[in-house]
Write a structure and sequence with these properties.
With about 200 residues, the chain is of the alpha+beta class. It folds into two domains: about 80 residues, Glutaredoxin (3-Layer(aba) Sandwich); about 110 residues, Glutathione S-transferase Yfyf (Class Pi), Chain A, domain 2. It contains nine helices and four strands. One of its GO terms (biological process) is glutathione metabolic process. This is Glutathione S-transferase.
């Protein structure tokens, strides 16, 4: 299988962490891509008309996107319900936490693009502030529930990737001081081989 991704993509990292945790990482051929919303990548566009990563191309040639779908596909390959609880409150708690983590990453990437791609004279501070307010609210919501990294599920993996992305791209944020429980959660996850092996550089 081929995975279109990048070293710094938090969504790509989520898929790689899932693959490692499920014992499927060795079956992936990683295709490192360079792209932004204003810099098209034709190889990615050919696999995903949205022009976004990650994209998984199966051995049969089927393109699967985005990270939410790829993660569940890999879970099914590994026998099912390994990282996605089967049913009930546990399942929807994991899926909701996944949505929260994905939302943090979406908002943070939006800010990153605004600051790195848009010419300074055209940057819109209220837009940046609005996106960062989403991150702040989401972190407070995540911190309101005490949780341990194990047993691992897709929600915890996604939250971990979101926190790590904030630490990587926005080191000035004080979420560790504001939410010590999230800091402890992240530190424990960071020790797992799946997170250590996929740390962005």
């Amino acid at each position: 299988m081929k995975l279109h991704t990048s070293v710094t993509s938090p969504f790509g990292r989520k898929v790689k962490v899932v693959a490692i945790e499920l014992g499927l990482f060795d079956r992936l051929e990683l295709l490192q891509e360079q792209l932004t919303p204003v810099q098209a990548n034709e190889r990615v566009n050919a696999a995903n008309p949205l022009g976004k990563i990650p994209v998984l191309v199966t051995d049969e040639g089927q393109a699967i996107y985005d990270s939410v779908v790829i993660a569940e596909y890999l879970d099914d390959m590994a026998g099912g319900h390994r990282l996605f609880p089967a049913a009930g409150a546990e399942r929807y708690a994991a899926l909701t936490l996944q949505a929260l983590g994905d939302g943090i990453m979406d908002a943070a990437i939006g800010v990153r693009y605004e600051l790195s791609l848009r010419p300074e004279q055209y940057r819109w501070q209220p837009w940046i502030d609005g996106l960062m307010a989403k991150v702040t609210r989401a972190l407070a919501t995540a911190a309101a529930v005490e949780r341990q990294p194990l047993p691992l599920d897709i929600g915890k993996i996604t939250l971990g990737c979101a926190l790590a992305f904030l630490e990587f791209r926005f080191p000035e944020l004080t979420w560790r001081q504001d939410h010590p429980s999230l800091a402890s959660f992240m530190d424990e996850l960071a020790e797992r081989p799946s997170f250590a092996k996929t740390k962005p550089a």
